[in-house]
Amino acid sequence: MVTMYGIKNCDTIKKARTWLEQAGVEYAFHDYKKDGLSDTLLDGWIRELGYEALLNKRGTTWRKVDESIRDNIDEASARALMLDNPSIIKRPLLDTGAQKVLGFSADEYAALFS
Fold this sequence. Notes:
Elements: E1 2-6, H1 11-22, E2 27-31, H2 32-35, H3 39-49, H4 51-54, H5 60-64, H6 67-71, H7 75-84, E3 93-95, E4 100-102, H8 106-112
Parallel strand pairs: 1-2
Antiparallel strand pairs: 1-3, 3-4
Helix pairs in contact: 3-7
């Protein structure tokens, strides 16, 4: 089963969900704000994708982080930051079971599900 992780009101999530639905791809949606984020799940993502890839440094959530934390970010502080505020994780994170894909690109999704 494909699972999409993110937050419901994110515009990129909305685009990705629309793409999946129009392509007839069945998926479950895991909303960080409603469903939470476990240490185990995040640790697996960090091992597989790396904390740098997971950390969304382009969003407003990142800009609200204290500059001293942003300037000295490492795996441990990034992990703590993502657990405390999952909206700082790049969205969507799509788990197909075989692989994990960060972000949304219609072309990448088309190749993934062709």
